[in-house]
Amino acid sequence: MKTIIEPFRIKTVEPLRITSREERERALKQAHFNLFGLKARDVIIDLLTDSGTGAMSTRQWAALMMGDESYAGSESFFELEQVVRDLTGYRHVIPVHQGRAAERILFGILGAEGKKIPNNTHFDTTKANIEFTGAKAVDLPLAQALEPSAEAPFKGNMDLEALESFLEETPKEEIPLGLATVTNNTVGGQPVSLANLREVSRLYRAKGVPFFLDAARFAENAWFIKQREEGHADRGLEEIVRELFSLADGCLISAKKDGLVNIGGILAMNDGELAQRCRDLLILTEGFPTYGGLAGRDMAALAQGLREVLDPDYLSYRHASARYLAEALERAGVPTVKPAGIHAVYVDARAFLPQIPPEELPGQSLCVELYLRGGIRAVEIGTLMFGGTDPATGRPTPSELDLVRLTLPRRVYTQSHFDWVIEVFEDLVRDAPALRGYRIVREAPFLRAFTARLEPL
Question: Of 7, 41, 323, 448, whose CB has the highest number of CB atoms within 10 Å?
Fold first, then answer.
C-alpha cells in the first residue's frame, strides 16, 4: 500500500480556533515578531517544537491514575528506574523535570572555565548550559551536514578526523566529558550511524574521556539505523537501542520527545560517584532524587511511553508523515534539508529567500510569513538561534545555516493538517522574492531566540 495510515484512532479532540489574517497581524505585533511570544490560542497549526507537545495513549492516561505521589521512595520511580535500566543498561537513573535540568546538573558539576566539551553539534539549550559554566561547546559536524541539499544517510555523524585531532591537541584535564547527539537536531534532525558511534566511543575511551549521549530522539535514531545502515535491517529496535546506549557511559534524555510525555527527563549513567554528586545537586532545585521535579503520575506516564516508543508501526507512520510533507514542499519549489528526518522537516531559508542576507534573519522572515498566511507557527534554527552579535556594529553574526524547522508533534496532526501547511507554502512561493528581513531590537545574554524582540526592516 502507498498510504501509511495513522496507527491510532482519535478518542478525544481539542478544538482549533481558526483566526483571521487581521487577528494574526495584531498578535504578531504584540509578540514583537517573535513566535515564541504568541498565545497558543492564536495559532492554528503549531509546529514550533516536538518537545512535550505530543498526545498520550490510552495506556499512558491509565498509568496517570496509578501514579504514586509519595515524596520519597515513590513506586512510580522504581517502575521508571527499571524501564530505563532495561532500555539503556545504565545502573543509575535520575529523573528530572526536563532535559535542560539534566544538562544544568551534569554540566554544573563537570563544566568550568577552561573546559571544552566536544559534540557532533550542540543544540541551543545544551550549548547555553555548557557555556553558562564558563566551558566551551565544540561542534564537530561532518562538512556534508552543512550542505542542506546533499543526500547522505547519516549526515548527523561526528567528523571523526576532527574529533581525533581535537583529542590529540587538547589536554585530557580540559575535556570533562564528550557528547554525541542522536538525532542531530541542529543540522536537520539527521541520524548518527552505529558505526560512527562505535568510533566516537573508541576515541573518547582511548583518551579516558567519559562519553554521554544526548538521546532525546534515541528511538527515531534507531529507526534510521534499522532502515539505512548495512547489517541492521533484521535486528529488533530494542536490540539496536541497547547497543547504542552501551557505547556510552551515560545519557541525558529530554523525555518530552521520545518519552512520549508532556513533561519529564532522564539523567542516567554507570559511574556511581558521579551519580551521587548529581543527586546531591538535584536536591537543591529539583526535589528528592526519587521524583526529581516530577509528579508520580508523570513518571508513570513516562515509563509507559518508553515501552511504546519502539513500536515499528508508530515509527514507520511518523517517518512517512515527514516524507510526505518534505516531498510536497520540494515539488512546490521549497528547498528542504535532505534527506527528510523524522521529527521535523527543515526548510533551507537561506536558499529560499536569497534576497535576505543572513544577518537580516531570513529564517525568521519565513516564520513570520507562514504565521501571517496560515496561522502556522514554525521555529527559526539559524542566525537568531545560533548566531551572535557583533559588538562593533550591533548586527547579528551569521550561523552556519539558516533553517526553518517544521516540527511534527507526536500523534497530534493528520494528513489534512499537513495538506494545509503545503497549500500555505504553495501560495507563499509566488511572493517569496518580495519578503524582507528583520532586526533584533532586544536580546537576552543566553538563549536569545526565546525572548528576543524584533522588527521588520
Answer: 448
End-to-end CA distance of the chain: 49
Q: Which residues neighbour 409 within 8 Å (Cβ) at sequence distance 6 or greater? A: 46, 47, 49, 50, 53, 54, 55
Angle at 213 between CA 211 and CA 219, to 5 degrees: 150
**What would you report as the CA-atom Rg of the chain, rounded to the nearest whole angstrom?**
21
Q: Would you state the cell numbers that stand for residue 429, as one nine-digit string?
A: 512561493
Angle at 361 between CA 358 and CA 362, to 5 degrees: 85
Spatial distance between the Cα atoms of 94 and 55, rounded to a whole number of angstroms: 24
Alpha helices in 133-232 (DSSP H): 160-169, 194-207, 218-228
- Residue 55 near residue 410, CB atoms below 8 Å: yes
Contact of 278 with 94, CB cutoff 8 Å: yes
For the stretch 69-120, pLDDT in tens is 999 999 999 999 999 999 999 999 999 999 999 999 999 999 999 999 999 9
- Separation of alpha carbons 255 and 54, rounded Å: 11
List % helix, strand, coil for the chain (3-state, nearest 5): 45, 15, 40
**From the centroid of its chain, how far is CA 245?**
18
Ordered structural domains, the chain, with CATH: 21-50+311-456 (3.90.1150.10), 58-308 (3.40.640.10)
Q: What is the pLDDT of residues 274-287, one digit of tens each?
A: 999 999 999 999 99
Residue type, 198: R
DSSP 362-403: HHHHHHHHHHHHH-EE-EEESHHHH-EE-TTT-PEEP-S--E
Task: Give the pTM.
Answer: 0.95
Q: What is the 3-state secondary structure (H, E, C) of 271-313?
A: CHHHHHHHHHHHHHHCCCCCCCCCCHHHHHHHHHHHHHCCCHH
